[in-house]
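To whoever picks this up:

The nightly regression suite flagged Type I-U CRISPR-associated protein Cas5/Cas6 as changed. Nothing in the input moved, so I suspect the structure step. Input below, exactly as stored in the fixture:
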Amino acid sequence: MLAFEVALLTGRYVATAVDDRGRAEWPPHPARLFSALVAAHFEALDRSEAERAALEWLERQGPPEITAPEAAAREVVTVFVPVNDTSVVGSLDDEALLVREARAALDAAREKGGKALAAAEKKLAKAEARFEDAVRKALARAPAGKEGKDGPARAASLLPERRTRQPRTFPSSAPAELGSAAPPLVFAWPSADPTPEQRATLDALAARVTRLGHSASLVSVRLRDDRPEATWIPDDVGRGRAGDEAVLRVVGPGQIEALCAAFELQADAPGRVMPASFQRYVRPRAAGEASAPAPRFGDGWIVLRRVAGPRLPSIRGVDVARTVRKAMMAAYGPGAPEILSGHRASGGPSERPHLAYVPLPFVGSEHADGAILGVALILPRDATREERLAVYRALDAWERQRREDDEERPRLPVHLGRAGELVLERLEEHALQSTLRPATWCAEAVSWASATPVALDRNPGDLGARDPRREAAAYAEAEETVATACERIGLPRPARVTVTPAAPLAGAEKARYFPPFQAGSPPLQRVLVHARLTFDAPVRGPILLGAGRYFGLGLFRPLREHG
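Regenerated output under the current build:
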């Protein structure tokens, strides 16, 4: 057994959530602890080979259990801080980064040779020329001995109190059980079996760690001989108490090499993704404790909100979803994995859940108009760490392709032909619109209503038959198909399914207004219907049913008792 105890010396943990800059991270991610240990190793004047070997051993031990007390998030206050002298330092840093990237690309191209090597050499020469030009321009701005009329003003503008100020937030959490000292955090590997030498080396290394997360999070880290009861445990099947699941960043084999490579490429560049894998954690349930049934789709969404372009109705949702999928796969490059494409390497459809591209329509309120406010990227609950990492890498590559200058949030265009260009942006703070909040669609409820129609897996017959018996039989068949679809995504069979010709939610479009949807091999046109679901007990979302569920069809919204 191996366990690290982390004491928060100031009583607070300051770190920003990876998917929401306005929210504090809690519990601390295991990848942060590992990065802190690596930083302590490289800060030493005389680096120990034993420390490096111990860290390489640790990165192979898998995700740890975590013991973390409940924490209260501090109210986030926006402060304005002076920026660096971007007119000189910023431009040089940018050009230097391009030179380092070009040199790394040249090293990678040496093995290929030929045109690839020639192109890399040309790119490096161009980057070095740009850097030298930037240096000359920086020196020309302040020639020695020539102050100029605006010299004093320009010099004064470099002082912190005179610089341009930009808004910044510093989310933090504090353990709720604060007394004379904050209760410690514990990261434990129950099955790890370090040698006495490895334990001593890791303990000495941990003693040199001074912060975790932001520099304001002062900590003391040491090994301990026991481990308390875990409050968060790794879980690869997504079974936890309702609302008690989290996706945390963890490490695996090769983490030190990945951190070193990222550092060489200036890892603090905008838009970076810290090298890490993703692991679902849950709170352990007490014996006999049951959780509300949950579908195979997870609630750790990546939300892209609409920031420009036409205000599209929900009937264009499948077009938007398919275009976003195409952009993600193109950004990933050749060999896009099954989690992104939904197809096996052989070309056939995936036999297990994969990423769903779900447009989010504004429905269910008094002034709802059904417009698409954003797109959710929804992973299966049992997605592996590698699959989650592939999705984040694809999205980051897409953003890097679209980033301009020092833009922190690149805009992602979605070209829709004659309909124009829908522009999306990754949502990294608490959404003001409830439509863009995963909790809106993932809450527990007994009753649910469709926001977009379900593409039925089987043809139910003529729902518009003039013969009442044929019509009733068709509706009964459609309701049976919807009930079976619930079981297919891991939910219990509904106590009642009501198929309706009209949209059950305010702002939702009738099924007959949606374009024909084809699925299967060979492609067959599917019947589209709206529905209401009633379960015997509350179930959790998100509920996506039918043949079009990976493109936003069959999206259900929970209904409160009054709704």
